[in-house]
Amino acid sequence: MTAKRREATDPTPDDGELVQRAKGGDAAALDLLLDRHQGVVYRFLLGLLADEDAAADAAQETFVRALTNLNGFRGDAAFRTWILAIARNEARGMARRRSRRRESALDDLPPPAAAGPSPETRALRNMEVQRVRDTLARLPEKQRMSVSLRLFDGLSFREIAEATDSTEGSARVNYHHGIRRLREWLHDDQRT
Amino acid sequence: MTTNGHNGMNETNQPASGVTACDDALDLLPLRVAGGLGVRDARALEDHLSRCASCAAEVGFLEEVVRARPEVPRGFKASVLGRLRIDESGVTEAAPARWKALVDGWIDSERRVAGWGWGLSVAALLVLALGIGVVWFEGPAANGDVQLTAALLAPEEEMVEEWMVAGAPVLDGLSDEVLLSLMTEMD
Fold first, then answer.
1. Would you say the C-alpha torsion A56, A59, A64, A67 has a positive or negative sign?
2. Could you list the residue range(s) of the whole structural domain that residue A138 is in?
């Protein structure tokens, strides 16, 4: 089947085809790539950085980096794997910068008076969604990432392993441990 | 896998029949919830769920978790496209008329090539000016080197106006006709 014919008959072209079209300047292909992957990149970074604003900034940086260097994508790995690797590097860089800033800020500023959730967060916590999010955030990083990538974005264990720099077996175990803990903690919360 | 309290058996304590056992079902359920399940797996899973109450209950739990899925902040895509300079002419984020960054990148690379071209042209003119200078001071065919230089420069020389050296007019020794023509052009 030729590319043209496939385009006419297949309403959901795969990432490889979209990347090729985007490289050729097809704005619609670029738009679709962004639509398709913005969620997983954002949630992946949210899992790593545990901060919504930082995750959004890092996700934006990730896409700008990836899309302006699209010619560097050779197609050896899946596009999602490639962009998640860029996101992971971005998160590492951001974590380093935040750590440096925190160190210098600690030299100059007094420590915060009270550590704890903001009034807004406390209000949201009453909601079921926030309760699940908070519980998910308590999971160890590898378990949290495995649950999030598997459940929110439907990644295979192989893809999760590539994204989190672990093995497929570890990704599977982390996912199941994470889900089990999540269930237990949510159940415990409901009882108390 | 015993994540929801059962051990690969269905509620009748018999091994799950059909294509999908509980372990497989538990692996596949997240994909069902996330909407990423293939047709064949989906069929096998639905078959299993219709016979296994434990796995069916697991679906409810996973759906509850998925409802808490964090979504990308509003305006995220517009921010990215803005960084790519796509929407600077008011193009909407939903349907950018063109991928301007790519075009910009292409223009930049063209500029780089053009820059090299200009550089080479200027270098050629400088070499030409040097060659003419050498010929001027050494006299015609004073030695073999000058002849060689002149021979090498001959094709370039044809491309340069006779009163221009390195882009600047050389007025000395120009005929009245050429001077007149030059002044007309300057007017």
1. negative
2. 116-192
d(CA A156, CA B39): 16
CB contact under 8 A, B70 and A150: no
State the Cα–Cα distance between residues B112 and B68, nearest whole angstrom. 50
A26: CATH? 1.10.1740.10
DSSP A70: G
Inter-helix orientation angle A52-68/B100-138, to 10°? 50
End position of a domain, from candidates A88, A111, A134: A111
The angle at the Cα of A112, spanning A108 to A116, to the nearest 5 degrees, equals 150
Which of A52, A67, A154 comes nearest B35 by C-beta?
Answer: A154
pLDDT tens-digit series, residues A54-100? 999 999 999 999 988 888 888 888 999 999 999 999 999 988 887 77
Task: Round to whole Å and give the CA distance between A17 and B66.
Answer: 30
Q: Of A36, A47, A33, A41, whose CA–CA distance to A59 is shortest?
A: A41
Considering only CB atoms, which chain B residues are within 8 Å of A21? none
Residues A87 and A125 in one domain: no
Q: Which residues of A touch B101 (CB under 8 A)?
A: 67-68
Q: pLDDT of B68-77, one tens digit each?
A: 999 999 999 9
Are A151 and B33 in contact (CB < 8 Å)?
A: yes
ipTM value: 0.76
B165 membership: H or E segment, kind and range: strand B164-165
Q: Indicate the domain borders of chain B.
A: 1-71, 111-186
Q: In this structure, are residues B28 and B41 in contact, taking their beta carbons and an 8 Å threshold?
A: yes
Return all residues near A145 (Cβ < 8 A) that are at least 6 apart: A44, A47, A48, A160, A163, A164, A174
Q: Do A181 and A128 reside in the same domain of the chain?
A: yes
